[in-house]
Structures are given as C-alpha cells and as structure tokens.
Amino acid sequence: MRFDPEPISHGQSGKTAVLLINLGTPDEPRPAAVRRYLREFLSDPRVVEIPPLIWQPLLRLVILPFRSRQSAQKYATVWTREGSPLKVNTEHQTTALRNLLHANDYDVIVDYAMRYGNPSIPDRIRALRQSGVERILLLPLYPQYSSSTTATATDAVYRVLARLRNQPDVRTVRDYHDHPAYIEALRQQVEGYWLQHGRPDFAAGERLLLSFHGVPRRTLDLGDPYHDQCVKTARLLAAALGLDETTCRLTFQSRFGKAEWLQPYTAPTLEELGRGGTPRVDVFCPGFTSDCLETLEEINMEGRHAYLSAGGKAFHFIPCLNGASAWITALGEIAARNLQGWPVLSPEGQADAAAAAAASTRARQVAAVAAFDEANAAANPGARA
C-alpha cells in the first residue's frame, strides 16, 4: 500500500484546524450531477443497510435513472445564484466561525467539507495536511448523532487517515443535541420569526411542528441514539419557548422506501392538522443547521401544499439557523470546549490568558489569606483588642 506524500516540517510547530462537515449537495441542479451525488450517497452502507449484491442493481438500474431526474427538478426550485443553499449556508457559517474564533485570539484554520460531493473530505484533509495542520477538530453540522450522518462522516475521515504516513491528531465532536447554546440559538430563531410574523395563537388551536430528518425505525431498535436525541432537543426547545407536547409536536420527514421509519411522519401530520381545522401551523426543523432541499422544498413547498390542500389556513415556515449570530456563537462555544488543551491561542491570546491566570491566582491567594484571618479572629476574639 502506498501512502500519500507528507509535508516536511523539520520540527516546526504544526497548525490546528476546525473542519466543519455537512451532508453534501450536487454540483448543479441537472440530472447527471444529481445522479453522481445520489450514487455516492445511496451507496453508503451506513445510509442504506441492504447487502450490495441486492441493493446496487436496484439502485443503478431502477432508482437512479428516475430519481435523478425528479430530484434535479426539485433542486432547481431552490437553487440560488450563488449555488446550492446547503453549500452557500455552510460556506457562510465557516466564514463566520473563522471570524469569531480569530476575534477571540484563536490561531486556527477553519474550513468545511461535504460527506458526499464537493469539497470532499479527502480533498480537504489532504489540503489541511499540506498546509501544515497537525491537529484537526472534526465538527459535524449534525446536532443529533446518527450512524447515517455523524458516523459515516468520521468513517470517511478515518479512511483518509489510513493512507497518511504521518497522521494528524484528531478529535471528533460526537453531538450537541442538548448543548445550552444550541438550544438558545434555536429558541432565538423561533422567537425572532414570531417577532416579525406574529406568534401563533396556541389557545385557539394553532400549532408548532418540530420536523426532524427521518431514519428507518429499525435503527432505533438496533441502538442508534438519534431518535432519543431528537426527542430531547424537541423537549428542551419546547420548554424554552414555554410550550408543551400539545402545542409543540415532534415529527419526522424525508421517508424513503416502503419500510417503517421513525414516526409520527411530518406530511401526514400536516394533512391531519389541515383536515382538523387547525387555523395556523408553524414548522421549524431544529436538526437541520442549514436550509437545504429537505427544508426549502420538502417542507416549505410540499408540506405547505399538503396542509393547505387539506383545509389549513395559514402555513409558516421558520428558516433554519443558517448564519444566525446565536448559532455562530454556539458553534464557537462547542469548538472552544473541544479545542481545550491544544496550542490554539495566538501570541496575544496567550499573553491575555497568562495575565488572566495570574490575576486569578492572586485573587485566590488574597481570598485565602482573608479567610484565614477571619477564621483566626473568630477563634481568638480577644486578640482583636
């Protein structure tokens, strides 16, 4: 086995990088590009757990020829001048996190990669190594852990590492589904939308749906924590908004195939609420940190149509976190916590940290002396005279 060439550092101190990882997107909204993307995505054994000898002929001969054309049409409805919404939002988050960390004296490289499509994980890892990076913090943009998202992203990283002669030090953020800063960012996103568009009248039967990406039901039975983490995120967000399980409902979207997936399903729930006379429904997708096909087309277009066609009156789609300042702050907190112990501060930051540590030590010493004097005085009251 040949190993990839390595940069020669000659004892120089290596750099540290934070690598954001997202799902991925086709390069353009055309059938050929979508087919390439879907072939890579749906060939991942963590995404489709069907033996390849059975699955691959079905994928290549039946699914890809038809689904690629249909998906390309859907992508075209959400594509922007800058490109795919998922890629554009991820790029903006990367830039914002880089600026935030640098403003706080972190001397780190901040980059991003896509699990499927471009820029690929192998390309970005190799580019970071060529630039002298010796420490990488992997920060998947999936708040809730799942084998089909977080695990397959780290698998891809480790496959690259297997080809490196001089491997970097690597840390992985597993999940942050209940991180206080993440929950606060979600709360601010919802409350900010309501401030502009009015808060639903929950007493009159209006509702908020929290729609998470679905996965097959069997993954829960096999030990994947994704379902439970979604439930906890929804519970914490509902509490932060002052809502209960009646006014704020959890659902799962994006079913594929005939097998049972996590329930309740989003689309049938919207139809049920429309038929039941629910005057307004707001839908928010806490598990998606960037708006993408699944939120912009599946929820804001297909979901809206399902609800209104069933008799609903007012449908509100609350955008994902995208580049919200509270979300970038949360990303910064998550990154900073996981960077601890690595030499990541700039010279100015190191000086400030040393000064703060010295001041803290002095404060503790003064407090200890004061406490000793107070205890000694209490034990010897006559000594005061």
UniProtKB/TrEMBL annotation:
Q: Which Pfam families match?
A: Ferrochelatase (PF00762)
MF terms (GO), sorted A to Z: ferrochelatase activity; metal ion binding
Reply yes or no: does the keyword Amino-acid biosynthesis apply.
no
The family database entries (InterPro entries) matched by this protein are listed as:
Ferrochelatase, Ferrochelatase_AS, Ferrochelatase_C, Ferrochelatase_N
Q: What is its main location?
A: cytoplasm
Q: Which residues bind Fe(2+)?
A: H213, E294
* GO terms for cellular component: cytoplasm
Signal sequence region: none
Which top-level enzyme class is recorded in the Swiss-Prot or TrEMBL entry? lyase
Subcellular location(s): the record lists: Cytoplasm
- Biological processes, Gene Ontology terms: heme biosynthetic process
List the pathway annotation.
Porphyrin-containing compound metabolism; protoheme biosynthesis; protoheme from protoporphyrin-IX: step 1/1
Reaction(s) catalysed by this chain's protein? heme b + 2 H(+) = protoporphyrin IX + Fe(2+); Fe-coproporphyrin III + 2 H(+) = coproporphyrin III + Fe(2+)
> Keyword Lyase: yes or no?
yes
Q: Which keywords label this protein? A: Cytoplasm, Heme biosynthesis, Iron, Lyase, Metal-binding, Porphyrin biosynthesis
The UniProt record lists the EC number as: 4.98.1.1
Family named by the database record: Belongs to the ferrochelatase family.
Give the function comment from the record: Catalyzes the ferrous insertion into protoporphyrin IX.
**What is the name listed in the Swiss-Prot or TrEMBL entry for this protein?**
Ferrochelatase
| Species of provenance | Pandoraea pneumonica
